[in-house]
Amino acid sequence: MSASSTLKPVLISGGGLASLLLAQSLRLSKIPFKIYERDASFSFRAQGYRLRLSTEGLDAIESVLDASTWKKFWDTCGKTGGAGFTAFDAVTAEVTEHVVPENLQSRDGKVVGIARGDMRKIFAEGCEDHIEWSKHVTGYELSEDGVRAIFSDGTKSVQGSLLVGGEGIYSKVAKQVSGGKLKVYDTGARGIHGQAPSTAFKDLGEGVFRLRDATRPDGSVFIITNVRAGDMHNPDVQFGWTMGGQPGVIRAPNDDYTIVGKQAADIAKAIAKDWHPRFKPLFDQMDEKDAAFWKITCSTPSGVPQWENIPRVTVIGDAAHSMTPAGGIGANTAVRDSALLGRLLREAGGWKEGVTAEYERLMRVYASEAVNQSYTFATEAFGIKIDEEGTPTV
């Protein structure tokens, strides 16, 4: 009997990007694991947008994946060159800013990005048989020799060696393990994600673009997108854009931000109705079924708080450090968590006393810096401000 077959599994709550990359690390280290995902399948949350991957994010992903999976991942990524970053007045199409920022580039002088759905699909390869669907983790219970996840229907998981909360900003595991110290603030700002055939972007050319409308009486709104060469004239390929607005500008019907499809698309089109014709194809040709709302949330801007370490429970990704979309920092920090925790578990041969304490110590350093950077960017981009005493939490 192998050593790995006698180990209790690592339990992972949530099937998002950070959870799946951690699962890949455990799979390759031959450490048993189980993933509990509240949705019935990946198709329930198929919508997504293109993530910009930083040097740190790419390095973390490459350190986890085996050579063939990494090649597949890298080949799937888009590499955007062009003229760097250009900002436009959305109404007049005048250039308001043009720079070639090195911090956008991650490899070979290119901006590297990938759609969330594609990323999730690759990270899930080889892990599918370890996922239990429609399992909503609402807490956990500890024993002397393990931990069990508690589900919303009152049932419990098998006993695991470790529980990793990776279920995002609404994580119950995060609240329990931190004694309520991990908080996610609702900034009041909202956004919409949209997709359109790549041909709708050809008037922009290749590069990273922001379109900003400051003429609205209720606050400014903007779109950011990156357009890569090669697929620009292929209508079968879609590019994404992300719209964001200051608090009060973008509102979902009945404040229901789970709405997906035409209602979200119609609101985006209405907001952009007076924009310059150069930008209209992004909305006129959008795939309405993929439009989705999102809330702009952020963890405590001063950094990831300290809590008493519980050796058999920890958190990764948005459960540990939610960030605004400004700067595209959140996902890159989440995959760093996965790589770090996976490496520590591999080096220890599975869960050992002290592994989560060391992970949390190291994670707090880079994640606190990232949260602060993301929040600082967002105060300018979205006009938000978090008062830790008065701003509502999610």
From TrEMBL:
Q: Sorted alphabetically, which keywords does the UniProt record give?
A: FAD, Flavoprotein, Monooxygenase, Oxidoreductase
Q: Name one GO molecular function term.
A: FAD binding
What Pfam families does its record include?
Answer: FAD_binding_3
The Swiss-Prot or TrEMBL record lists the needed cofactor(s) as:
FAD
Q: Which Gene3D superfamilies match?
A: FAD/NAD(P)-binding domain (3.50.50.60)
Residues in FAD-binding domain copies: 9-348
- Superkingdom is Eukaryota
Q: What is this protein called?
A: FAD-binding domain-containing protein
**Natural source organism:** Podospora didyma
